[in-house]
C-alpha cells in the first residue's frame, strides 16, 4: 500500500509539473474562464445600450412628411440625421428599462430586402404618408421586439399604471445565472480535455506502453490523473468565483458542503467519461473529434449561456437529463436558490452512479499497449 | 551448460494477414549478450515484445527465469529492463525527474538515480527537459530507465536506430561497460551488422519471421562460407586470364575495381602479386577482406541487411 502512495505522489507531482510548465495551458485554464465571465457579465449586466437597425422605405413626396416622421414629432421623439452615414437615429427608453438606439437606414425595396438577407437589419418599414407597414419574420425575436418597441412608442405610451424596475440585486442578474453554468462547463472541459487528451497523447507516443512495462500500479496511475485534474479544476473554479465575487459581488446563497459534493460528483462523472473516451483511442485527432462531439452539444443545450427553456418544449425533457444540465442545474440551485444537501441528492446520485459505471466500463476495455 | 534464462519454443504470431513470427525457437544462457539481427520486417520487434510481455504468442511458449508471463507478470516486470524501439517521455519533465518517476514504480532494490545519470553520461543534462535532448541523449535516457531496477535481463529494441555514428558509439560504450561490470543477460535487436558484432557474443539472424542462422560471428562465417575477398584497382585494364586459377572461386569487375573471391588469401596473395608484377600491371589500391555478416545475409536471402 505504501508503494501505491509513493507512486501516486510522484505521478501526481509529475502531472502538476507538466501542467505549470506550459504557460499556454495556464492561460486557457485560469485566465480564459475569467475573461469569458467578465465579457459576458459586462455585456449582459452593464449599462450598455442596444442598437437596432431598421431598413426604412419612404413613400412620400419631397414636401410631405411620412407617418413615422409625423408620429415622432407628435410624441416628442427626436429623429436625428447622422450627416456622415445619412441614417436617422431615434433614442428610446429610460434608465430603468435601458436605452435602445434605433437606426433607420433609408433604402429602396430591393436594398431593404438585401439588408435583411445579410442580417444587417431585422425589420423593414414601409413608411407612407398616413400609415406604416412593418415587414419582418415573426420567428425572429429580435425583429419582433423591435416592432413592439417602435409601435408602442409611436402610439404614444403614457401609461401611469405600469412601471419598470431594473433587476440589480445579486442573484437576479445574468452573471448570477451564467457563473454556475460556467463552473459546470469548466468541470466538464477540464476532465475531458485534461484527462482524455493526456491519456491519448501518452498512448500515441508509446509512453503508456513503456510505463505499464514496469510494475507500475495502474490504479495509482489512473487515480493520480483523476485526482490531479480535480485539484486543478478546484483551483480554477475558486479563482473564477473569487473574481466574480470581487467584480460582480456574486454570492453563494446555498450550502458550501452541497457545493463541494456537487463539484466532486461532476468531476467523478466527467472523469469516467474521459477514461472511456480515451480507453481505445490512439490518435489525438480522433480524440479531438470525440471530445468535441460530447462537449459541444452539451455546452449549447445544457443552459450554460442561456436558459434551455428557450428550446422547443418537446426537447426540454431530453435536455434536462443531459449530465451537464444536471450538474449546472444543481450548481445554480446552490448559488441562486439557496439549496442545501437534500435538494442536490437526486442529481448527485445520478452523476456519481453513472460516473462509477462509466469508469468501470472504461477500465475494463482499456487498451494499455 | 546452465539452464537457459530465456527459452522460446515454437512461437507463432500473426497480425491480420501478416505472419510476423513463424515458429521461432531459441534459448539464451545467463550472462549472454545476444543480437537478433535482421532487416526491417524480419519479426525482431514482435519477438522482442513477446519476450517483454507486451504481446502474446498465438501458439508456442516463452519461459523467462523458469516462469511465464501468465504465471508471474509482476515478477517478470521487476526482472526485466526494457528499452522500446520508440519512446517519447513527458516533454516538460527533466532527465532527473523522469528517472525518479520510473524509479517509483519499482519496490525492490534499485540503482540510485544519480548512478544511472553518471553511467549513461547524462550528468550535464540531468536538469534539461526531455524535449530538449538530442536523439542519442534520449536513447541514453531510455537505457537509463531500463537499468533502474537492477535488471538481470536487459531487452533493447533497436537502441541506436536513427542515431549518428558518434551517438551510436556513445550508446555502445555504455552497453559495453554494462557487459563487463554487471554480468547481466542482454538481447538486442538491430539491423546494424557492426553493432551486433561489437556488442554480442551470439547472433541470431532473422528474416520473414524465421531464423536463418545463429552462432558466434566466426562460427556463422565459417559455417556458411570459407571465402575471403581481394579487392584492387589497377592503373590500366587487366585480362582476367592472368589471375592465378588455384584457390580462385570467383572474379568480377565492379565498375572501377576488381573483386576476387578466394579460398585462402594467405596462399593466394603472393601468387597474385607475382603475376601482376610479371605483366607490369600497376596496382593503385589493394584490400584484403573477410566476408561479412552482410555478405552472409546476401548469400542466404539475395538481399542486403539494410534493404
Describe this protein's structure:
Chain A has helices spanning 2-20, 23-45, 67-74, 109-117, 141-154, 174-204, 207-212, 218-248, 256-277, 284-301, 316-320, 323-335, 341-364; strands at residues 50-58, 80-81, 88-94, 98-106, 123-127, 132-135. With 369 residues, chain A is an alpha/beta fold. Chain A has two domains: 7-44 and 170-364, no CATH class; 50-154, 3-Layer(aba) Sandwich (D-Maltodextrin-Binding Protein, domain 2). In chain A, strands 2-3-4-1-5-6 form a six-stranded mixed beta sheet. In chain A, helix 1 (2-20) crosses helix 8 (218-248), helix 6 (174-204) packs parallel to helix 9 (256-277) and helix 9 runs parallel beside helix 13 (341-364). Chain A is elongated. Chain B is an alpha/beta fold and 307 residues long. Chain B has two domains: 6-222, Rossmann fold (3-Layer(aba) Sandwich); 226-290, Alpha-Beta Plaits, CATH 3.30.70. Chain B has helices at 44-51, 73-79, 95-103, 113-119, 135-147, 165-182, 193-199, 217-224, 265-278, 293-301; strands at residues 6-15, 18-28, 33-37, 59-64, 80-83, 153-157, 185-190, 202-207, 210-215, 228-234, 248-254, 257-262, 283-290. In chain B, the strands form three sheets. A six-stranded mixed beta sheet of chain B has the order 5-6-7-3-8-9, sandwiched between helices. In chain B, strand 1 (6-15) and strand 2 form a beta hairpin. Chain B is elongated and about 75 Å long. The mean pLDDT of chain B is 88. Chains A and B meet through helix 1 and helix 7 of A and helix 2 and helix 3 of B.
Amino acid at each position: 500500500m505504501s508503494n501505491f502512495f509513493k507512486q501516486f505522489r510522484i505521478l501526481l507531482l509529475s502531472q502538476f509539473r507538466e501542467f505549470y510548465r506550459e504557460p499556454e495551458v495556464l492561460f486557457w485554464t485560469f485566465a480564459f474562464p475569467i475573461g469569458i465571465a467578465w465579457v459576458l457579465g459586462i455585456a449582459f449586466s452593464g449599462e450598455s445600450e442596444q442598437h437596432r437597425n431598421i431598413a426604412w422605405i419612404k413613400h412620400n413626396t419631397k414636401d410631405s412628411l411620412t407617418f413615422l416622421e409625423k408620429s415622432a414629432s407628435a410624441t416628442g421623439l427626436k429623429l436625428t440625421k447622422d450627416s456622415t452615414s445619412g441614417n436617422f437615429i431615434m433614442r428610446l427608453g429610460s434608465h430603468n428599462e435601458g436605452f435602445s438606439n434605433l437606426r433607420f437606414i433609408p433604402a429602396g425595396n430591393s436594398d431593404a430586402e438585401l439588408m435583411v438577407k445579410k442580417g444587417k437589419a431585422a425589420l423593414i418599414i414601409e413608411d407612407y404618408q398616413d400609415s406604416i407597414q412593418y415587414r419582418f419574420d415573426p420567428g425572429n425575436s429580435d425583429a419582433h421586439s423591435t416592432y413592439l418597441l417602435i409601435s408602442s412608442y409611436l402610439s404614444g405610451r403614457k401609461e401611469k399604471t405600469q412601471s419598470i424596475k431594473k433587476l440589480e440585486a445579486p442573484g437576479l442578474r445574468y452573471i448570477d445565472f451564467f457563473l454556475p453554468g460556467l463552473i459546470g462547463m469548466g468541470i466538464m472541459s477540464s476532465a475531458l480535455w485534461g484527462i482524455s487528451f493526456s491519456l491519448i497523447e501518452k498512448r500515441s507516443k508509446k509512453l503508456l506502453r513503456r510505463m505499464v512495462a514496469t510494475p507500475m500500479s495502474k490504479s495509482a496511475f489512473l487515480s493520480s490523473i483523476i485526482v490531479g485534474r480535480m485539484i486543478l479544476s478546484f483551483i480554477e473554479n475558486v479563482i473564477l468565483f473569487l473574481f466574480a465575487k470581487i467584480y460582480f459581488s456574486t454570492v453563494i446563497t446555498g450550502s458550501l458542503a452541497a457545493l463541494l459534493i456537487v463539484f466532486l460528483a461532476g468531476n467523478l462523472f466527467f472523469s469516467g467519461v474521459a477514461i472511456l473516451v480515451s480507453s481505445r483511442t490512439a490518435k489525438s485527432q480522433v480524440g479531438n473529434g470525440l471530445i468535441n462531439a460530447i462537449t459541444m452539444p452539451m455546452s449549447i443545450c445544457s443552459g450554460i449561456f442561456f436558459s434551455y427553456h428557450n428550446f422547443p418544449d418537446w426537447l426540454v425533457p431530453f435536455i434536462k437529463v443531459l449530465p451537464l444540465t444536471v450538474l449546472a442545474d444543481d450548481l445554480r440551485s446552490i448559488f441562486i436558490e439557496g439549496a442545501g444537501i437534500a435538494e442536490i441528492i437526486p442529481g448527485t446520485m445520478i452523476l456519481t452512479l453513472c460516473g462509477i459505471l462509466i469508469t468501470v466500463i472504461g477500465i475494463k476495455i482499456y487498451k494499455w499497449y | 551448460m546452465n539452464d537457459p534464462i530465456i527459452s522460446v519454443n515454437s512461437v507463432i504470431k500473426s497480425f491480420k494477414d501478416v505472419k510476423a513470427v513463424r515458429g521461432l525457437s531459441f534459448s539464451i544462457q545467463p550472462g549472454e549478450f545476444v543480437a537478433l539481427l535482421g532487416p526491417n520486417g524480419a519479426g525482431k520487434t514482435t519477438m522482442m515484445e513477446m519476450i517483454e510481455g507486451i504481446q502474446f504468442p498465438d501458439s508456442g511458449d516463452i519461459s523467462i527465469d523458469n516462469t511465464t508471463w501468465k504465471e508471474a507478470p509482476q515478477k517478470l516486470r521487476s526482472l526485466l529492463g526494457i528499452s522500446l524501439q520508440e519512446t517519447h517521455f513527458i516533454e516538460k519533465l527533466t532527465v532527473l525527474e523522469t528517472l525518479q518517476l520510473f524509479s517509483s514504480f519499482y519496490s525492490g532494490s534499485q540503482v540510485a538515480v544519480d548512478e544511472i545519470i553518471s553511467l549513461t553520461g547524462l550528468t550535464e543534462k540531468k536538469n534539461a527537459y526531455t524535449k530538449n535532448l538530442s536523439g542519442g541523449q534520449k536513447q541514453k535516457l531510455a537505457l537509463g530507465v531500463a537499468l533502474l531496477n537492477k535488471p538481470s535481463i536487459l531487452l533493447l529494441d533497436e537502441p541506436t536506430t536513427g542515431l549518428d555514428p558518434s551517438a551510436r558509439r556513445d550508446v555502445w560504450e555504455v552497453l559495453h561497460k554494462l557487459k563487463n561490470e554487471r554480468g547481466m543477460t542482454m538481447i538486442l535487436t538491430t539491423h546494424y551488422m557492426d553493432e551486433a558484432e561489437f556488442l554480442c557474443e551470439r547472433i541470431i539472424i532473422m528474416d520473414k519471421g524465421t531464423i536463418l542462422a545463429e552462432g558466434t560471428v566466426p562460427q556463422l562465417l565459417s559455417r556458411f562460407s570459407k571465402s575471403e575477398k581481394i579487392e584492387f584497382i589497377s592503373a590500366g585494364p587487366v585480362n582476367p586470364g592472368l589471375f592465378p586459377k588455384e584457390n580462385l572461386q570467383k572474379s568480377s569487375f565492379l565498375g572501377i575495381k576488381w573483386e576476387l573471391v578466394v579460398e585462402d588469401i594467405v596462399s593466394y596473395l603472393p601468387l597474385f602479386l607475382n603475376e601482376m608484377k610479371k605483366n607490369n600491371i600497376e596496382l593503385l589500391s589493394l584490400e584484403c577482406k573477410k566476408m561479412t555478416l552482410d555478405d552472409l545475409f546476401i548469400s542466404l536471402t539475395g538481399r542486403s541487411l539494410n534493404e
